[in-house]
Specification:
Layout (H helix, E strand, L loop, with lengths): L5 E3 L4 H11 L3 E4 L5 H6 L7 E4 L9 E4 L3 E5 L4 H6 L8 H8 L4 H6 L2 H7 L6 H7 L3 E6 L2 E6 H4 E3 L2 E2 L6 E7 L6 E8 L9 E9 L6 E9 L6 E2 L1 H7 L6 H14 L10 H25 L1
Parallel strand pairs: 1-3, 2-3
Antiparallel strand pairs: 4-5, 5-10, 6-7, 6-10, 8-9, 11-12, 12-13, 13-14
The protein binds flavin-adenine dinucleotide.
Flavin-adenine dinucleotide binds next to strand 2, helix 6 and strand 10.
């Protein structure tokens, strides 16, 4: 049962920020409502005011630039990202990730900003954004703040957003030369959340083909999506082979901090990390060699 609330519909970013500043802790932003309404129906949150930002067209865009990369407005829907021609320019992993997120109905209405701000540890986009070294911008009446997506998720369903603030934009820089990125998730029911999600990015040295840099990001394995930094270190400076990727997978499984829940036991999640890091690493490596 949803408790009564006052429903506010700003039409511009400035109007929205004024309302957020006025009502601060008493209000909640709603974008697509795909995650928020579930919490409200369960009685887990009961805001006095709902600030519906879905109608703010100035936050709904994808800009693509060879020098600056991608800029995605927070109100861009999952489906728009999935279908955008801009994803073909080195960002196909984002479209692939979106294709496996929820159902078409949810992707049609849910927004990328809502997904990132929900702070769900099993969400699909954040591990991919972290692998792509993405940053984001927040807006409030005080101005803009910029930070790495990696630093935005603080804890289980908790982000770095402050009262009066909204997420405005996500920026994905152009990938360095000879970089490949891949993502997959294991889920029992297609369109469900990840039991474990893994994103891997590999950059090869143009001269000797050794691994110059790597990012291995685990989803649903800790209170927030998190990099497996020791596993990344295993790859750096070496020629990547299947055996080396398996070793990275083993280290990542030790680094992970999964819980046991209705979807899987802790042990099963660690096993998934081991297998998926090696498998997604192979895909990222193949892409890096072609890039
Ligand atoms: C059936 C179903 C299946 C799903 N499967 C998946 C899945 O497989 N993978 C996956 O990753 N997700 C999945 N989801 C989650 C869902 O797709 C996303 O979380 C959703 O896209 C959130 O976007 P929204 O616009 O609906 O956000 P809302 O529900 O409106 O908001 C979510 C949260 O973010 C806040 N918020 C929204 N926009 C902003 C903003 N711009 N600035 C600050 N705060 C903001 C809200 O206050 C709220 O706390 C699923 C959801 C459903 C209903």
């Amino acid at each position: 049962m949803i408790r009564d609330f006052e429903y506010l519909t700003p039409k511009t970013l400035q109007e929205a920020l004024t309302l957020l500043d006025k009502y601060r802790d008493e209000c909640k932003i709603i974008a697509g409502g795909q995650s928020l309404l579930i919490l409200m129906r369960q009685g887990l949150i009961a805001p006095e005011y709902l600030v519906d930002i879905k109608g703010i067209s100035e936050l709904d865009y994808i800009k693509s630039d060879a020098k600056e990369g991608l800029k995605i407005g927070a109100l861009t829907t999952h489906r728009t990202i999935e279908k955008s021609p801009a994803m073909k320019n080195g960002f196909s992993v984002l479209a692939e990730m979106e294709r496996r997120l929820a159902s078409v109905q949810t992707r049609n209405w849910g927004t990328i900003g809502g997904n990132v701000c929900h702070g769900e540890p099993a969400g699909d986009p954040v591990p991919v954004f972290i692998a792509l070294n993405a940053t984001l911008s927040t807006a409030s009446l005080k101005g803009q703040r910029n930070m790495a997506v990696e630093d935005f998720c603080l804890d289980y369903f908790e982000t770095a957003l402050e009262p009066g603030e909204l997420l405005a934009e996500i920026q994905v820089p152009p990938a360095p030369p000879h970089t490949g990125t891949a993502y997959t998730k294991f889920n029992v029911i297609e369109s469900d959340m990840a039991t474990v999600g893994v994103a891997v990015s590999i950059t090869l040295d143009s001269g000797d083909g050794m691994c110059k840099d790597s990012r291995i990001v685990l989803g649903a394995c800790a209170p927030t999506p998190r990099r497996a930094k020791q596993a990344e270190e295993v790859l750096r400076g070496k020629k990547i082979t299947d055996n080396l990727l398996k070793e990275a997978g083993q280290i990542a499984a030790q680094e992970a901090e999964p819980i046991s829940d209705i979807s899987a036991s802790e042990e099963y999640r660690r096993e998934l990390v081991k297998v998926l890091v090696a498998r997604v690493g192979q895909e990222a490596l193949a892409r890096a060699r072609q890039a």
